[in-house]
Amino acid sequence: MFTCGNKKFIGNMVDMIRRFSYTRVRVEKFTRNRISNFSKTGHVLQQGSQETAILVRPQMRRLQSSAMTFWRARFSVLIASLLCALITLAALPHSAEARYASIVMDSRTGEVLYSRNADDLLYPASLTKIMTLYMTFDALERGKLRLSQKLPVSARAAGQAPTKLGLRKGESISVQDAMFGLITKSANDAATVLAEAMAQSEMEFARMMTAKARSLGMNRTTFRNASGLPNRHQKSTARDMAILGAAMIHDFPQYYHYMSLEEFDYKGTAFKNHNNLLGKYNGADGIKTGYIRASGFNLVASAKRGGNRLIGVVFGGRTAKTRDTHMASLLDRGFERIEAIYPTTVPTPFDKPLRIALGTPHETDTEIEVAATTQVPLPVQSQTSDNASRIYRISDVNRSSVSVTRGSTPADDNSGFEMDKAANARWAIQIGAYSHKTTAQDQINKAAAQSGGILEGRRINIEKAISDGKPFYRAQVIGFDETEARKACSSLAAQRVSCFVVAPDLRLPSYIAQKNNS
What we know:
Radius of gyration: 35 Å
Number of strands: 14
Number of helices: 17
Largest sheet: 5 strands, antiparallel
Distance between the termini: 40 Å
């Protein structure tokens, strides 16, 4: 194996070049030898015009030949070096392929539908700003920032490299405008402004970003700035960025809709969103693009169709157009697969779906209607009557951001229902969400028939919720401990029945991260 540092290889390369380029020099040297022989012996067999000229001006010709030899030698070394570099580059893997990675994930469950090089450490570029926005949304939710709050522009912020809004030192910008600048223009100066508002310096903010990444389960990500500008130590993976995208959606549904902003007007200038899938790809509603030369064209995208939402990540696109086309293809394949696995007929709320059914306790005691259910062996369907429902008060069920009405599936008075008071039996499994109550019941019965007896004797809960003004019904089986719930879902998944575990204190992004890192 040769290398550019191999002296023998360089010597052979130079010698080869000299064989082609030194022909005239060798002829001249041969001629001078003949003239030297003439001066000693007085004999010469042939004396052409060139030899005569050399005899007349021997010293001048000797100097010219020496100079030409010097520069030609240098030229041969240069050519050898260039050839060596070209051969070495040809022997290396293609740079675009080396930085390519992708993943498609179900945002509800963390199930990976497709991945390639998903754990390779790569440059996130402006995908870094997703974490900057996540931290901003968190500060807004905790009251540390306000949308209308004016933030000062420092010299460091004003001096950031493009792309940027063109902020000047000493002026101010509102939190909302800075956010919109990140989302649309991917403004590096606005990113620094937000970072300095939440920490003493951008460097300190980057450490906070990395700590937050770890808490979300992004175990291979390290941030060094708030913008994604080049830094050789700032690395992430496609899988980690998918986890971050899911966290953004599920933790901050009240702010996530900003990510679909297609155009932002700032001081008379309209900035269009770099995410070209918005308005063009069916269901696309965010999230963020990124580009530096070392990374290629990156994209984290989210799209929702019916009850399914997918997170797609692409690193290392050759151009923005080919990246977008590739992302659309990956999402299409993902939706085809997920629709076959989870044939839901209505949208499931994107905000914290795993928290809705059985969540962490309230700070206040809230009356929630809970379905009275039968404790008869499944799949026997209980007889229902609208006048026979029982309502129970439970104070430790998480308040949902969607309108939830439990108890929409009444049970027979003779059902023998008993509240399960065991602390470790508050886990549940969810089969799906459906537009009709009867469909939800039928799907539970169907799942029970394929469960191999695991759901025998379990209690059911058909939960009504409202999304976008339309009702839908979650089909749940409740009263498990964690081990039983996971075992039940694994068994159903083996039968190709949709299922995910609902925990009483489950935080969705952490669940997704744990699932992907296990």
